């Protein structure tokens, strides 16, 4: 019976964390009815599922909540500087329907520069005009047609 209560409490805690993760409600907004209902639901779930099934689910929910609160989003990290969209270029060049990546993870894509019939010097000058001095600090830079640059830095 004691193990059943522990499992019910753990399931209740998981339900509260899930609700907080979904931003539906916070623990301070819950009344006694919601508490009793969640404990009853937790007891019912705990009666049918073993502790070995509930524990990994509970740990995954806790990890997801902690990641969300700390701002971690997996592989993509939040940049300190918002992406920059430059004004249209003055120079004529081949029009492209899709954006052409010129820098990926701090590395210049020379084959794409050749498609534009431009040099690395030209790219560096354009980036300097926009306030970017170090190419290694640029996560992604693309040029859409002859319209504008899109730059996202680390």
From TrEMBL:
Residues 94-143 form the YetF C-terminal domain. It is a multi-pass membrane protein. It is found in: Cell membrane. Keywords: Cell membrane, Membrane, Transmembrane, Transmembrane helix. The keyword Transmembrane helix applies. Belongs to the UPF0702 family. This is YetF C-terminal domain-containing protein. It comes from Shouchella clausii (Alkalihalobacillus clausii). The lineage of its organism: Bacteria, Bacillati, Bacillota, Bacilli, Bacillales.
């Amino acid at each position: 019976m004691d193990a059943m209560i522990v499992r019910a409490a753990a399931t209740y805690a998981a339900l509260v964390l899930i609700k907080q993760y979904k931003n539906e409600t916070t623990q301070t907004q819950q009344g006694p009815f919601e508490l009793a209902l969640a404990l009853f639901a937790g007891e019912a779930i705990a009666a049918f599922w073993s502790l070995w099934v509930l524990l990994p689910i509970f740990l995954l929910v806790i990890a997801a909540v902690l990641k969300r609160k700390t701002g971690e989003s997996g592989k993509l990290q939040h940049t300190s500087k918002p992406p920059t969209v430059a004004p249209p270029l003055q120079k004529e060049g081949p029009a492209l329907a899709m954006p052409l990546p010129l820098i990926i993870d701090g590395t210049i894509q020379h084959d794409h520069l050749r498609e534009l019939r431009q040099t690395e010097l030209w790219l560096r000058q354009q980036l300097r005009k926009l306030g970017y001095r170090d190419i290694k600090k640029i996560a992604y830079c693309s040029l859409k047609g002859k319209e504008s640059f899109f730059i996202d830095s680390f």
